[in-house]
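Provenance and format

Records in this collection were gathered into a single text stream. Each protein contributes a sequence line and a token line. The two records reproduced below are adjacent in the stream.
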Amino acid sequence: MRSAVALHREGAFEGAEAGYRAILAEDPDHVGALHFFGVLRHHQGDDAAALDLVRRAIERAPDNIEALNNLGNIHLEMSAWNEAESAYRTTLKLRPDFADGYNNLGLVLGLLGRPEDAEAALEQAIAIAPRRAEFHFNLGLLLRRRGLMLQAFSAFKAAVTLDPGQSHAFEAMAQAQYVLSHTPTEAIATLSAWLSREPNHPAARHILSALTGTGVAPRAADQYIKHLFDGYAASFDSHLAKLDYNAPRLIETAMRGVIGEPQGDLRVLDAGCGTGRWGELLRPFARELTGVDLSGGMIEQARRGRGYDGLEEAELTTFLAARHATYDLIFSADTLIYFGDLSAVLPVAAQALEPGGTLAFSLERLEEDGPIPSFTLQYNGRYAHTRPYVVEALAAAGLTIARLETGILRLERGTPAIGWIVIAQKPAT
């Protein structure tokens, strides 16, 4: 059992599975093997088997706190929030001083739209274990979503003080400082302190460039994208639900106005597929649906029955450059917002399209107010583009604009984030 768990923790899933199976062949009621094999199955993307195994462990040991907590965790990552709440509450009835249980309960209550209850649960977790930095960070995220930015800043600062290795807390703290003061001075100081500890951290460098305007790269570094989205992977879908995220549906509506109703006959690429949340939106158009994303954590989530025929972990421009006249439709929701200079990605996207193929994507809008650059890196780490630059970049790539319109992509701290919805086509000849 110790050997199987060690392999599991190291990510050697095949060896861990062989160990768990060997134990269960000898003792089908072994609680530990049932429990951890269930957790492994969840990591492998088979949630039905995961739930069955963990429930069998709980049937044999109803007071197993760790198994009950992991049952809640599996439900949480499946977005089965009511079931997750029930599991966490059962855990806390058995062990009222279980700090992780209160933390997890706070997370799911926030997703269920009960912010006051969520805050109370997170405060209880902190009361039990005040030196757990991740509890303070989670409270900060909840307070930020509620618009309580000053309190959120205090929570992020506590997380950083307790654990300076909390990179996400450093980033959130700097962004909160910028929002509160409307000047970059304090946020720059925080990012500089972070870089003094981790001189090569991609997020610290990227956001510092955004705030100072110096050293701005033509696109976000691969390491920054992986850092950002690997950290978000497990909670990404539920996070988007809180933002009224609408970019993919706006793109799909505009797309239908150009290519017509779906006939299920296209080779479709979801470029920057994330967790695969929008696979169901694209499936009606596709006889073959492929997803590509730079984040391995996102691809792992997308493998959970999202309906893709193929998924690849790869950098987008490299992936597209290796494919000539392969796709009838390339769909990209809020992926090119991590590219400032579009001159590298649009030409390879055009190359990857069949003649007459369609590129459908979103960008964030940069207002044209006096002399401004073609694009800018915003404090949130995303690029925004002007309309003239988008038009110019598409023309340079040999793509014809079918639609270029504005829309509300999401809510940003309660304020609509305006973006470009772009449908462009490759000439048929």
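Adjacent record:
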Amino acid sequence: MPPTIETHVVTDRDSGPYAITTGPDGALWYTVVRAGRIGRLVPGEQPTSFALDPDRGPTIIVAGADDALWFTEYQAHRIGRITTGGEITEFTPPTPGCGPYGIAVGHDGALWFTEANADRIGRITTDGEITEFPLPLTGAFPSAITAGPDDALWFTLNQANALGRIDARGEVTVHPLPTDAAGPVGICAGADGALWFVEIAAGQVGRMTTDGAATEFPLADRAARPHAIVADDRGNHWFTEWGANRVGLITPDGSIGSYPLPASHAEPHGLTIGPDGALWIALETGALARVTPSATP
């Protein structure tokens, strides 16, 4: 049986909810990229939001180790922090025009982020101290980042068709993918001790062990443009199919299911396991989708 999918409108259709995470306050927090806002939704209640300057372009958001939410501002080239009460602080990395995109909490409690335009990985402590680490290649467009199972951070290199690994000292290792023009974007740590990621250009889901061995799983629709991926508590991985208006599920053995969203042209992007245990997806058309799994594929 397919999962149950509900759509909850949270903002104007053209505002663009993009990324979503579960906050320390039991609410869903999401970026509204085109409206320059941070949104908050407690399931079952009305949404609220907090305004940034309109040119900020808030992109990826995560819950920090300091009980606040941290987010990247791709257009403004800043890192933002918002408390659960709505107080916003912004920090500027040393490299101008760096284009911060992905962000994740590291094993050290700091926030680690990608600088898509500058081929660097940044680290910001919860008191705002920033360090940058250059990558050993140029034009790689580092994108999403996650804390791995090996005390390091792993990130996708969208234009280099590779995954990167950076340890606490800033040492970087690059692991090429088997497929040329894969265009990896989303990445997460799996329950199996590996890294799971999606290849937006090749229409595939990938798995990489911490020693760099990669396995790829093609989607039935190679034009689905998978964008973001998250692990659930059953050992499965859910991913958004931006180009196909669907949400996908891959089991640990590589079986894949794909389910249409009820709203047409929803443009699904970020997703998270919510405080209610359901899967929540940010839809660029001004809504969040709630997915209740009923069976594996």
